[in-house]
Amino acid sequence: MPIKTFPENLSQNKELSIRIVSPEFGHISPESAAQYGPAQRLSYYFFLFMLHGNSQEVIDGETIEVAKHELFFALPHQLRQLATTGHSVDYYKLGFDDECLSRLPRKFPFLLNPLNQQKISFPPNAALRLLNTFNILNDLLRAADNDPELILAYLNSLLTEINAAYFVLHKKHTAGALDKFLGFKLFVEDNLTDQPAITEIAEKLALSTDCLYRIVKQHSGVSPKEFITDRLIIEARRRMYNNQKKSVKELAFELGFNDPGYFSRLFKKVTGKTIADFYQNLSL
User: Fold this and answer.
1) Best CA proximity match to 90, nearest among 142, 138, 55
2) Per the CB 3.0–4.6 Å rule, which of 111, 151, 165, 195 could disulfide with 256?
């Protein structure tokens, strides 16, 4: 059973790790918000659905514009920079953790983000269904003692709608290929700092290296080696945000690099910045 990782003081239900925020409900105090700082490594799932207006989200250093009827989501361990300005007009935010997710009757593949897209656009009819479900969750979470099974039922409905929209433009991808790509992503996540060889991953997935290359390229746009490199650099940036005193050597060894110099050159090649430049920008 997954443990609760949602901040206990933020949960709006006595039995579930979940919180919803709208323009008129659910905001924490400025004092509580200040303790999280300008950036936060998430320990839970985060969603932002724009009903009207727009917002700007920064996740793992990437800026994403979110407009009307678009939903942004972020996953545990991602680094989210908190917005410096408020969202315009109308929105819903939702957060919950793996413990809450484990109580739902099905799995949601989009939460692995296999297509590497963290924003989903909804047509009007789907956006209305999403809005109605958010409205019900908003009502249910106004009282801390409301039935958790009722809340979970609507959360399941919400995630089912989002999951369908996430994959709707990618029906051309065969289910088998997508399953293999999900397996690739999971293996990389579970063994990231071991830096597994492509041949090892292909063997685990019962694929040839050429087949693995085609599947990863189809779903991510990059080769398996580039995918792992990009993921390692993202992890490096997250760890630098969390501990700005960590040396290049420490960081390199943590991430499975035996040569700190090679790691430094790779970081600059991928990001366009030296590690020293990155640390300096963090301190500004």
Assistant:
1) 55
2) 195
What is the distance between the alpha carbons of residues 118 and 216, in angstroms, rounded to a whole number?
18
What confidence tens digit (pLDDT) does each residue in 82-91 have? 765 555 579 9
Written out in words, the top-level CATH class of the domain with range 8-170 is mainly beta
39, 46 Cβ separation under 8 angstroms: no
Report the candidate in 196, 260, 189 with the shortest Cα–Cα distance to residue 268.
260
Check whether domain 175-283 has CATH 1.10.10.60, yes or no: yes
Residue from 204, 232, 201, 203 nearest 216 by CA: 201
pLDDT digit string, tens, across residues 154-169:
999 999 999 999 988 6
* Residues 174, 12: Cα–Cα separation, whole Å: 40
Residue 215 has pLDDT above 80, yes or no: yes
**Domain edges within the chain:** 8-170, 175-283
